[in-house]
Amino acid sequence: MTAVLQARHLGKRYRRRWALSECTFDVPAGRVVGLVGPNGAGKTTLLSLAGGLLTPTAGTIEVCGGRPGADRAQLARVGFVAQNTPTYARLTVADHLKLGARLSPRWDAGLARQRIQRLGLRSDQQAGSLSGGQRAQLALTVALAKRPELLILDEPVAALDPLARREFLEDLRDATAEQELSVVHSSHLVSDIERVCDHLIVLVASRVRLAGDVRELLATHRVVTAPRLDPAALPAGLHVVSADHTDRQTTMLVRSDSGVDDPAWMTSPVSLEDLALAYMSQSVPVPEALR
C-alpha cells in the first residue's frame, strides 16, 4: 500500500521542549485522515513538518515520496489550509485566484471559478469583507485548485459557527471524492472528524497513541461491563484502554484482535468519539532523555 505521508521516529524540539517525539506511522494514499489530540499534543507541529514549514530535529518524514518543501515541484504536491484560514484582507477574491495561478504550476482555473460561483462569492469582494465561513471556503478553494496530491487542514473550522462548519465539511467531503486526493485534517472536535474521516491518528503528549483505519479500530475495540474486577486479572490478549468502577461493576474500553468471549460480560461497540477521547485522556510520561 502506497503511503502519502510516512514518519519514522520523527521529533521536533523547541529549545528544551519536545513538541513531537518518536512518532512513527504511515498514512495510506487516498484516505481522509483525522488527526486529533489535546491542546499542546503536537498536531500543528506535525502538520507544519508535513507541509515543509519546519524541519525535523530527529527522525524522518516523507510526503508523496519526497522531503517536504524540498523544491517547487514538491511544494506543488501539497495544499495547506492553516488554522486561521489565511487570506489577504485587502485582496479581492479574483486577486487570490490570480496569485494561486502564479504560484501553482498545476493550477486548475476552471475548478477555482466553478467553486467561487457555486459559493456565491463575487470576484471583486475583498477578503476582509467576507464572513469567517466564506474566508475558509476561499482558502479551501485556493488549496484545492492547486490540484495537490495531499491536502493538509490545520483546524480550519475551529472558529466557525456550527452551520458554517457543517457546510465546510460537506464541501470538503464532496471535493475529496471528486478529486480522489489524500487529506490530513486536524481538529479538536472529534465529531467533525467522525463525519468525514476514514483513518485516525491520535496524538497525546507529543506521541502517537493510536493510528489506523477507522473501521478496523472500531472492530477491535469494545466497551465491556462486568462484575467488579481488577483489570490486571484479565486474560492475555485484552488491553485495557480505560476503566471505571462502581461498588458492583467495572466498565472498560478494551482492545482485542480476537474478540471478547466471557459470557459473564456485557459487550457493546464504541463510537469513534468515545474511542478517541479514551486515548486522549491517557497520561503519557515523557522519557527523561526527551525532557
TrEMBL record:
The UniProt record lists the keyword Transmembrane helix: no
Organism: Actinoallomurus iriomotensis
PANTHER family in the cross-refs: ABC TRANSPORTER ATP-BINDING PROTEIN ALBC-RELATED
Name assigned to this protein: ABC transporter ATP-binding protein
ABC transporter domain boundaries: 5-230
GO molecular function terms listed in the Swiss-Prot or TrEMBL record: ATP binding; ATP hydrolysis activity
Keywords assigned: ATP-binding, Nucleotide-binding, Transport
